């Protein structure tokens, strides 16, 4: 588990020493007690909290068998610990007074106390182990309801309540550039919070959010875990924001995470100038050149409402590049296309190749080159789509094997981090036959910390999404394997092993961060400078 800077609330040395001695003795008793539930990171966290001096004197920390009594429900009707809830409530009152909070006069005194005495400011989820901040750092439905009203936002732009607001802002900047800064004051303002004049750049807004906005606990944001004293030892719900909707009774709802995860992993592990592609996708929703353009299929009859969405001609889920050219499809046509190709898509991709564009990622290039000229009808286009799908799934399987062996530095070299060093400027944007075009693409060298922010986010999400992808079972795809492919893969692994003396230190750093299932933004940022592009 990631360890943050530990703050200790006022306690005398004797109390802290007493806490340590008492718990060390108790830990000897409970050493061989098998935990009943909880992710490993969460169980480690509970041990840290129970032994921390900030919680010295908490009533009934251990059960009769030496197990940690993390929960103290108010509805215990009998037993030795039926009064634990009330006893802990009194403990929280005394703790509040000791740090200058009056429980008799202050509103929400108990949750304020829990936040102030928490030594880490983050906690892992009991169910999945994902570490989230306890501060109000995550967008909620109030915020998203405003975001969805922006005329350039549609369902192709992922909105997740588990994403840190700084990460969301970074993605908005990636996609929509300066346009988003005109709307940020409206998105974040509340009756009690007036947004000051802030420079229209990412660094200024990140600083404002971290230093001023988040500490005010705006109604537009929510914490990674809700305060819940005295029911929980640390004063917070055991299930973080990431799992409350699927773990708590009465909170179950349809889970669309699988689709989001799949799209992420495809986007992050294909080739292409992802910075320029993201920026042009944003232009489709904000630039008048594209807003009024009809759907590609409008001439076929039926309803095709505008504005249209930016569709990858070659789906990235099949291994095509995430590159700055899109065809415009209405919402229904885009959804219907999904990850299949039509004959018209094959023709467009071949035309793009003839113009000198690289449309396919390296891992799918051989399959594409062998079969692309044999497609002359929609049935063959669909057949090629399925073959590329299986090839992609095989590739993802190989990436996971490489990751399991610990060769993270090599994998990072596939993420095209270098394109974040430049700010893309499109010149001569236009639309022709429902396809986006531009005369030239200028790349201006970035001189700010923004490039590091982009790289940090990309490497972090790429690895975590690859892990998530392989948690899903029963995929409608095959892993292609034969004796020859196994031979080549074995040789590749031998080559990686021969380089491990050079990369082992960085491999271990990345591995350690990923294994913690945490939002380890700061740790990832420290390794960016070590990666050789």
TrEMBL record:
**Annotated signal sequence range:** none
Which residues does the annotated region (Disordered) include?
Answer: 1-23
Gene3D superfamilies given for it? 1.10.30.50
What does the UniProt keyword field contain?
A: Endonuclease, Hydrolase, Nuclease
Q: Name one Pfam family in it.
A: RE_Alw26IDE
State any single GO MF term: type II site-specific deoxyribonuclease activity
Claim: Hydrolase is one of the keywords in the record: yes
Asked whether the UniProt record includes Nuclease among its keywords, one would answer: yes
Q: Which residues form a coiled coil?
A: none
Entry EC no(s): 3.1.21.4
Spans traversing the lipid bilayer: none
What is the protein's name according to its record?
Alw26I/Eco31I/Esp3I family type II restriction endonuclease
């Amino acid at each position: 588990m990631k360890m943050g800077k530990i703050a200790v609330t006022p306690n005398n040395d004797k109390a802290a020493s007493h806490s340590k001695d008492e718990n060390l003795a108790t830990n000897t008793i409970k050493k061989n007690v098998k935990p009943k539930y909880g992710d490993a990171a969460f169980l480690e966290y509970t041990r840290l909290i129970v032994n921390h001096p900030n919680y010295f004197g908490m009533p009934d920390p251990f059960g009769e068998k030496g197990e940690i009594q993390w929960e103290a429900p108010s509805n215990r009707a009998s037993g030795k610990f039926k009064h634990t809830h009330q006893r802990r409530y009194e403990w929280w009152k005394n703790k509040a007074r000791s740090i200058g909070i009056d429980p008799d006069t202050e509103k929400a005194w108990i949750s304020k106390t829990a936040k102030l005495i928490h030594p880490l400011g983050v906690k892992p989820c009991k169910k999945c182990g994902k570490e989230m901040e306890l501060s109000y750092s995550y967008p909620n439905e109030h915020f998203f309801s405003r975001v969805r009203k922006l005329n350039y936002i549609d369902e192709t732009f992922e909105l997740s309540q588990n994403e840190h607001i700084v990460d969301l802002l970074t993605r908005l900047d990636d996609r929509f550039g300066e346009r988003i800064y005109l709307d940020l004051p409206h998105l974040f303002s509340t009756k009690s919070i007036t947004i000051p004049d802030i420079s229209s750049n990412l660094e200024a807004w990140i600083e404002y959010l971290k230093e001023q906005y988040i500490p005010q606990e705006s109604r537009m944001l929510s914490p990674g875990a809700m305060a819940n004293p005295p029911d929980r030892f640390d004063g917070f719900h055991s299930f973080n924001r990431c799992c409350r909707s699927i773990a708590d009774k009465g909170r179950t709802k349809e889970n669309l995470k699988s689709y989001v995860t799949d799209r992420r992993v495809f986007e992050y592990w294909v080739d292409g100038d992802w910075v320029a592609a993201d920026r042009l996708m944003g232009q489709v929703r904000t630039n008048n050149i594209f807003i009024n353009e009809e759907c590609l299929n409008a001439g076929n009859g039926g309803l095709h409402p505008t504005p249209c969405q930016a569709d990858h001609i070659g789906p990235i889920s099949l291994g095509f590049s995430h590159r700055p050219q899109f065809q415009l499809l209405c919402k229904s046509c885009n959804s219907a296309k999904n990850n299949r190709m039509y004959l018209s898509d094959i023709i467009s991709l071949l035309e793009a190749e003839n113009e000198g564009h690289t449309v396919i990622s390296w891992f799918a290039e051989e399959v594409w080159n062998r079969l692309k000229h044999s497609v002359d009808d929609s049935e063959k286009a669909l057949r090629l789509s399925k073959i590329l799908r299986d090839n992609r799934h095989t590739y993802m399987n190989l990436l996971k094997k490489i990751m399991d062996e610990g060769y993270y530095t090599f994998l990072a070299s596939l993420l095209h981090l270098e394109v974040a060093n430049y700010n893309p400027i499109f010149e001569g944007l236009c639309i022709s036959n429902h396809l986006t075009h531009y005369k030239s693409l200028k790349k201006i060298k970035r001189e700010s910390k923004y490039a590091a922010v982009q790289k940090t986010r990309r490497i972090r999400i790429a690895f975590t999404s690859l892990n998530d992808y392989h948690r899903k079972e029963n995929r409608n795809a095959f892993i292609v394997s034969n004796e020859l492919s196994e031979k080549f893969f074995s040789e590749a692994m031998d080559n990686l092993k021969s380089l491990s003396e050079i990369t082992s230190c960085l491999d271990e750093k990345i591995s350690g961060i990923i294994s913690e299932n945490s939002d380890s933004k700061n740790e990832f940022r420290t390794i960016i400078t070590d990666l050789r592009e």
